[in-house]
Task: inverse folding
């Protein structure tokens, strides 16, 4: 008897990503907020205490759990080097060409010999429309089949999305009060983030807050 084989998608808990919202196979939903960092060590003692107090108040105000995810990866200097190469071609004097070339080689050598890491900070906000019981999940009655996939019906998706967005707004306001800049990820950013998570060996440009 031939054994059934499983594809990579079978091990990924994501059902779909719609309008920036992650719908998991168990019926729960997630929104993802990108957060900036703070130069905490450079703050005065009073400022540090104020930030800690505000963050504590933020956590105490939540009546739902959140996940804080930190993504660390080696700095990808290739886009910057490409920009420098273009600048090198634009130089009109031999001296500027030499200086630009030396700078390019310095940057390349420095990054190759040093472990320079970049960090991105994310807050994952969950929403469970119903009590989850895996095999007998009541949310399944709101799922319609398209091919071999189940897709959450539009009216229910919008209803649940509204509830999730309220939670996301609470999280964003709490972080802003702590002096942290935030941006909720859209569909393309969420897909890019999960692609990087499942393909850690590939170097891509980091997501930035405008």
Result:
């Amino acid at each position: 008897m031939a054994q059934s084989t499983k594809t990579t998608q079978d091990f990924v808990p994501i059902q779909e990503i719609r309008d920036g919202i992650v719908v998991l196979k168990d019926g729960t939903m997630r929104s993802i907020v990108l957060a900036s960092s703070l130069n905490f060590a450079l703050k005065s003692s009073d400022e540090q205490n104020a930030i800690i107090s505000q963050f504590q108040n933020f956590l105490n105000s939540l009546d739902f759990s959140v996940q804080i995810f930190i993504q660390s990866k080696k700095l990808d200097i290739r886009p910057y080097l490409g920009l420098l190469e273009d600048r090198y071609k634009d130089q009109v004097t031999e001296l500027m060409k030499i200086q630009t070339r030396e700078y390019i080689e310095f940057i390349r050598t420095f990054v190759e010999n040093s472990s320079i890491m970049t960090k991105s900070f994310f807050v994952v906000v969950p929403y469970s429309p119903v009590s989850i019981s895996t095999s007998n999940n009541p949310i399944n009655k709101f799922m319609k089949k398209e091919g071999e996939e189940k897709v959450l019906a539009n009216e229910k998706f919008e209803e649940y999305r509204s509830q999730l967005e309220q939670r996301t707004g609470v999280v964003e306001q709490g972080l802003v009060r702590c002096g942290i800049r935030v941006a909720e990820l859209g569909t393309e950013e969420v897909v890019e983030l999960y692609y990087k998570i499942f393909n850690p060996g590939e170097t891509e440009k980091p997501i930035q807050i405008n």
Q: What stands out?
A: Strands lie at 14-18, 21-24, 29-35, 67-74, 117-127, 143-146, 149-152, 182-184. The mean pLDDT is 82.
